[in-house]
Amino acid sequence: MSVSAGPGDRYVVGVDYGTLSGRALVVRVGDGAELGTAVHEYRHAVMDTVLAVDGQALPADWALQDPDDYREVLRQAVPAALAASGVDPQQVVGIGIDFTACTVLPTLADGTPLCELPDLRTRPHAWVKLWKHHAAQPQADRINELAHARNEPWIGRYGGKISAEWQYAKGLQLLEEDPEVYDRAERWIEAADWIVWQLCGVETRNVCTAGYKGIRQDGRYPSREYLAALNPGFADFVAKIDGPLAPLGARAGGLTAEAAAWTGLPEGIAVAVGNVDAHVTSAAAQALEPGRLVAIMGTSTCHVVNGTELAEVAGMCGVVDGGISSGHWGYEAGQSGVGDIFGWYVQHAAPAGYASHEALTAAAAAQPVGAHGLVALDWWNGNRSLLVNHDLSGVIVGLTLATRPPDVYRALLESTAFGTRMIIEAFADAGVPVDEIIVAGGLTNNALLMQIYADVTQRPLGIIGSAQGPALGSAIHAAVAAGAYPDVPAASAVMGRVDRDVYRPDPQRALAYDALYAEYRRLHDHFGRGGDDVLLRLRTIRNAARRAADHSPAGEAAVPLEVLA
Predict the structure, then answer these.
(1) Phi and psi (nearest 5°) for 299?
(2) Partner of 548 at 20 to 30 A CA spacing, among 133, 202, 421, 511?
């Protein structure tokens, strides 16, 4: 495939906003060829210990970002990608974006982020709450308890639990911890929709985040009565999130003069409606047909699959009509920590001589299945699916004096595969088939990990044919928004790419993994479903100790006796 720019070709730009950086990709409309890319790392990265503007300490489980870092991606990465591509900007006909979710921020009615108001700069709740801001778990617990007590019809569509990561838990935390900022927040908006607003000057809400993160089902949000029962001040919350709703692949508007100056793109070109990084990748991986599950594996993993029928799947993030592509029910699940777990071990636990993924992988690959004698639970960042509880934490069982670093590393790799198998089996139990898995994201480079997933799930694994899956998916949606294709499936068939059946399960290893998986399930249910709540008690003790330390002049904390009872 030629990757040179032709004078008669048309191009689109996809921008993928990740956890630590944003990537721009220039793509040819006619065949999906990728001609240029550039990455811009966020200046403030993730603020999870201190607020960058004044250095004030943040509580446990917070994760904030600066929205201007997102604009800077447009100012830096898009022009750099254009320069790398050799494409004449006048040949670009559209731009599309995807974002991590639920990443959400409070703004004024005109889209101005509250954290950019001088008098609110030092108020942590005025800033963007990143997807992995997990400090709203108490609010999530109340949201779920009340929904079940009232038999709210929507709760089953989310596997029986709304996550602490989603819009409502974070919004309720905002109200209860900083009511002044809540009152001044005229809009509570996903970063995906906010950056599209910055590009085209028009506020839109995409059906994907509105459905999965905004609890919009059957054309309605949760009732005012339900929200008031949570907290009287929360009754008006829907007014902050409701907005012009648009399907995926639609045109949100035209690029403004200001955004054209940022990006170097022509004013007025099509700006596609925003999307989520995982969901947009299905188009890039040519995986819109039901039964093809896409696992986007990076710091965390999101699992998305289309189905033909509506089903309520226990522990899922949600099922949304048109949430992945029009005409299907889109199902989402996820694991809050995957690559982050492996990275934690390399950076903080592996000794000298083993402190690299390459060294640990090579040593772990030499082991037969089960030789390490370990089973781990993949909850280092809580559990998104199936338990939907971010107060849970990681577990390793079977450690002995003979345990070595590659043993632990392999057990951690396997734990994430076991978590994915739990999700796939939950889909299957509810009548949502998963026939094959297509993997996207940076972890596809680890052949051992990919083979473990094939063996554990006992399904063939395909690999997306692009290293920039979300950005390519956003470019595909931009091509549809620009009118180059009639719909997303048609654009996906031409512009997407995938290598199918790259990894196939080995029957003997799969049988050996069945035995380990059975032990994983026992631990999963014991620690996650009420057998023993020790992990939750430990989290309570930790939080109490940290709060005491924050208020202790000597910096020494005594744990209140009542939390130990």
Answers:
(1) -60, -40
(2) 133
3-state helix, strand, coil in the chain (%, to 5): 40, 20, 40
The one-letter code for the residue type at 30 is G
Strands (E), 323-468: 329-335, 375-377, 395-397, 436-440, 461-464
Of 77, 24, 2, 31, the C-alpha closest to 493 is 31
Q: For the residues of 60-88, what is the DSSP string, one character each? A: TT--EE-HHHHHHHHHHHHHHHHHHHT--
Alpha helices in 345-404 (DSSP H): 357-365
Distance, CA of 263 to CA of 260 (rounded, Å): 5
Do you know the residue count of the chain?
565
Q: Encode pLDDT of 471-514 as tens digits.
A: 999 999 999 999 999 999 999 999 999 999 999 999 999 999 99
Q: Can you tell me which residue has the tokens 């569509």?
A: 157
The CA-based diameter of the chain, rounded to the nearest angstrom, is 74
Question: 347-377, pLDDT tens digit by residue?
Answer: 999 999 999 999 999 999 999 999 999 999 9
- The model's pTM is 0.91
The DSSP line for 299-333 is SSEEEEEEESS----TT-SEEEETSSSTTSEEEEE
Q: In a 10 Å sphere around its CB, with 0-12 CB exposed, 13-18 middle and 19+ buried, how is residue 552 labelled?
A: exposed
Exposure letters 430-455 (e unless 16+ CB within 10 A, then b): bebebebbbbbbebbebebbbbbbbb
At 543, the amino acid letter reads: N
